[in-house]
Design a protein that fits this description.
By secondary structure, the protein is an alpha+beta fold. The protein has 2 domains: 188 residues, Porin chaperone SurA, peptide-binding domain (Triger factor/SurA peptide-binding fold); 124 residues, Chitinase A, domain 3 (Roll), CATH 3.10.50.40. Helices cover 50% and strands 14% of the residues. The protein contains 14 helices and 9 strands. It has a 4-stranded antiparallel beta sheet with strand order 5-4-7-6, with helices on both faces. A 3-stranded antiparallel beta sheet has the order 2-1-9. A two-stranded antiparallel ribbon has the order 3-8. Helix 1 packs across helix 6, helix 2 crosses helix 3 and helix 3 crosses helix 6.
C-alpha cells in the first residue's frame, strides 16, 4: 500500500456511538450480568467468568444474524466469546495490579463526550438497539478505558521510532513513495434519494425521494457557500457511512480512478485546494442511467506524479505512523502472551467440549 495514499483516521466519538458500542462489546466480551448463582464457565486467577456473561454477549451478537448459529457452530461461537472474556479479565487484573483502573470521573467524561450531539431519547435508542442498559455501557466503557490506560503505559509510551528507523525504511521501500500518476485528496457529502433501510438510523432529514434529495443537497451547497465547514456538514448529513464520520474524507485517489466518472473529474480538475464542486449526480453503477443520489466533492490537496523525497515531512510522518503501528501491534501480541502465561486460567467450558468429544484433557 502506498503510504501517501493512507491516512490515520481520528473519528469523532459522539458521531460513532453505534460503532463504538460494537467495538466495546467485541473487545470486552459484552457486559457482566447474571446472578451470583450463575454457572461458572471459567476462572482467571480465581475470579469467575459466568455463563450469563457469555450468553449475554452471544445473544447480542447473534441477534443481528439472519441465520442463527446451531450445533458445533454455536459452540465455536461461545468458545470464542469466552476466550475474549478471559483475555479481558486478564488485562483488567493486570491494570488493577498497576493501579491503572479508570476512575468514575474518567468514565463520566468519556460518556459525556459520546453523548454530545445526541438528545437523551436518541442516546437511549442507541443503547436499546444494542440490548444494553446505561449501566452496562458504563461498565464496558470503564473496562475499555482501563485497557487503553494499561497499553498506553506499558506499550505505547515506550515505543520510539528514531530518525534512523525512518531513513532505513525509506531506503528499503523507496518505490512506495514514487507516485506513478497524480493523486487527489478528496472529501465528499453524499445524499441518496432512497428511503433508509429498515432498522437503520437515518441521517438528519433523510430524503425519501429524488425531489427531497435535490432539495437537501441544494440546502447543503447553500450552507457551504455561506461559509459553513465542509467536514461538519459531512459528519451531520452525508450518507456515505465509511467517510461521513471522518468529515467526508476519502483519502488520496488516483487520477485514473476519478476519470472513470467524466463529469466528476471535469469538475474536480477545475478546483483549487479547499474548493468544492457544485452538485454532482450519482449514477446507478449497474448502468441503468438512473440517478441514485447527489454529491458535493471538496478538493483537499492535489499530489503530482513523481518521487517523494525523504526530506518531505509528509513522507516522514507516514513512515513514522506505519512503523509505530506495526511495532505496537507486535508488542501488544507479545504482551498478551506473556501476561496470559503469568495467569492461572481454568476454562471449564473448553474442558466440557473435550469431554463431550470423548477426548481426555
Amino acid at each position: 500500500m502506498n503510504l501517501l495514499s493512507s491516512r490515520h483516521c481520528v473519528y469523532p466519538f459522539h458521531l460513532l456511538l453505534t460503532v463504538f458500542l460494537a467495538l466495546v462489546l467485541s473487545i470486552t466480551g459484552g457486559c457482566r450480568g447474571g446472578s451470583s448463582g450463575a454457572d461458572v464457565v471459567a476462572k482467571v486467577n480465581g475470579r469467575p467468568v459466568t455463563r450469563a456473561e457469555v450468553d449475554k454477549y452471544y445473544e447480542n451478537q447473534a441477534a443481528g444474524s439472519q441465520q442463527q448459529p446451531i450445533g458445533e457452530q454455536a459452540n465455536s461461537f461461545r468458545l470464542s466469546i469466552l476466550r475474549n472474556l478471559i483475555d479481558n479479565e486478564i488485562m483488567m487484573q493486570r491494570a488493577e495490579k498497576l493501579g491503572l483502573l479508570a476512575t468514575a470521573e474518567e468514565v463520566d467524561s468519556k460518556l459525556n463526550e459520546l453523548k454530545a450531539g445526541f438528545s437523551q431519547e436518541e442516546f437511549q435508542k442507541r443503547l436499546q438497539e444494542k440490548h444494553i442498559t446505561l449501566d452496562d455501557f458504563k461498565r464496558d466503557l470503564r473496562r475499555q478505558l482501563t485497557i487503553d490506560k494499561l497499553f498506553n503505559k506499558e506499550i505505547t509510551s515506550k515505543i520510539n521510532i528514531s530518525d534512523q528507523d525512518i531513513t532505513n525504511y525509506y531506503n528499503e521501500n523507496k518505490a512506495e513513495f514514487n507516485l506513478i500518476e497524480p493523486q487527489y485528496h478528496l472529501a465528499q457529502i453524499v445524499v441518496t434519494n432512497q428511503p433508509a433501510p429498515q432498522g437503520s438510523t437515518p441521517k438528519q432529514d433523510k430524503a425519501q425521494n429524488d425531489a427531497d434529495a435535490r432539495k437537501k443537497i441544494q440546502m447543503l451547497l447553500n450552507r457551504l457557500d455561506s461559509g459553513e465547514d465542509f467536514g461538519q456538514l459531512a459528519m451531520n448529513y452525508s450518507e456515505q457511512a465509511n467517510t461521513a464520520a471522518n468529515g467526508g474524507d476519502m483519502g488520496f485517489i488516483p487520477e485514473s480512478q476519478i476519470k472513470t466518472d467524466r463529469q466528476a473529474f471535469d469538475a474536480i480538475s477545475k478546483l483549487k485546494a479547499s474548493q468544492n464542486t457544485g452538485i454532482l449526480p450519482i449514477m446507478d453503477p449497474n448502468g441503468a442511467h438512473r440517478v441514485m443520489g447527489y454529491s458535493i466533492i471538496k478538493l483537499i490537496a492535489r499530489e503530482p506524479a513523481g518521487q517523494r523525497e525523504l526530506g518531505d515531512p509528509r513522507v516522514q510522518q507516514a513512515i513514522r505512523e506505519q512503523l509505530r503501528d506495526r511495532r505496537e501491534q507486535l508488542i501488544k501480541a507479545a504482551y498478551y502472551d506473556v501476561v496470559r502465561n503469568q495467569s492461572k486460567v481454568q476454562n471449564y467450558y473448553a474442558e466440557q467440549l473435550l469431554k463431550q468429544a470423548g477426548i481426555p484433557k
